[in-house]
Fold:
Amino acid sequence: MAIDAAETPSPPSLSPSHFSQQRHFYLAVDRIQFKMETFMDLLGVAGRRPCLPIVVCCSSRDELDAVSSAVASVPYISFAPLYSDLAEADRATILESFKQATIRWNSEVGAQSADDSALVKEEQKSHMIVATDACLPLLASGESPISACVLINYELPAKKEIYTRRMATCLAADGIVINMVVGGEVVTLRSIEESINLVIAEMPINISEIL
Structure:
């Protein structure tokens, strides 16, 4: 499997209170072959929220490509893959566009309901960035956090340091983390939960309960 080759910086030092308003859930997947289908089912609900800012984190370039390919045909989501070899200007454009999406979300949240019509206006689409850990915002270099409303860990990180870096660089202070967990990854999830002193609950069947 091809890994997006770039050194991952150490996560910023943050106090537990920084994450106190964030909510963490896990979505159990029975078998790896059902993971993408489950992910797309999740987006079929969450992705229909107008203007919802979403970040999807992958651990490898292969998975980033697979997720991007699956999401590309979804009419109600505007998405951009964040590759490590993007030109600096293109990267800045993607991050700025997503920042504007979060501003729209913050100003319009609660004011709109999902649009079931076949035509969805561009500005009403949910907005998504798909990235590997090597491509996350570099806070130490002056880049701003993405501040998404929802962070989906399509691939659960093996280390707590990566988990906390994803939260610090991708998630709003009151955001939601959804961890996709397959089989034995439950052990890793519980280890992260204990080491960071989090409560990671099973995601409710009706996702509208948490959004």
About this structure: The chain has five helices and seven strands. Residues 1-19, 112-119 have pLDDT under 50 and may be disordered. Residues 88-108 form the longest helix (21 residues).
